[in-house]
Design brief:
The chain is an all-alpha fold. The protein is about 80% helix and about 0% strand.
Length: about 290
Amino acid sequence: MSTPEDSLSKSPASYTFEQRDNRAIYAADPNNPPWGVLQACLAWIASVVLLWLIPQLCALPYVATHYQGMAGPTKEMLLSDKTFILIIVAGFIPAHVLTLALVWAIVTRLGKVSASNALGLRVKSTVEIFASIGAAIFLFFVAMLLIYKFGGQDTDLEKILRSSRAAALITAFVATATAPLVEEIIYRGLLYSALQRALGRVFAVILVASMFAGLHVLQYWPNFGAISAISLLSLTLTMVRARTGRLLPCFLIHLVFNGIQSILIVMDPYMHAIYQMWRHEAAGALYLLKFLV
């Protein structure tokens, strides 16, 4: 009885459709994925739709009951409703879970292909891990400089963080636990792998970096500092994917980059309290110094 592996020993001209399919499965690697551009683009569209639709569906029962009898809440009313914002932010979690289920089906061909092989998620060395961490820290400080230099008005993210402590904590959780994995698999995994095989590395880098940054422009508008920072991150991550041929370094950089921000979000009230205490003590010391000099 012949096996899929046996079919790989035949000449390519003699392959049947099923044998070519088996060959694609067994030969799958980050630059030779068992999916095409159409599947990758459809998965990207689905991820965007899920990220918009699922939080809205989660908030629908609350809006229907809380604003019962009204003609309809205005956008300003909803954006000032802390509970509504909290539900919307929490809705990102099931949206990401559903997206991961979808991309798992595409990447693994429903379990026929190793996701680690197809995406390049295997650890090669500890040097790679520490290099990725170092790159993420460097990128974070460069991003902070860009935000400081070109930062403008408040972004939607900053408004969410200020809406309530619970919303801030959930945002920190999503930014670290689910967002880096989902976004890297969608953009540098599915999209880049298919596009680089079809169009080449240069066009793939330009398209994927633009798609990732472009979608985040809506989130960070009109803060040009934040837009510059996310554009730098997008280009760097996509170039790392092109240079290494693997997704793991991109995921690690993204994870650490977001992780630093999440730590700052969690620690913000404590750092603010320490700053106020230090400021009060410094003011007291200066007041005493006036009488001693």
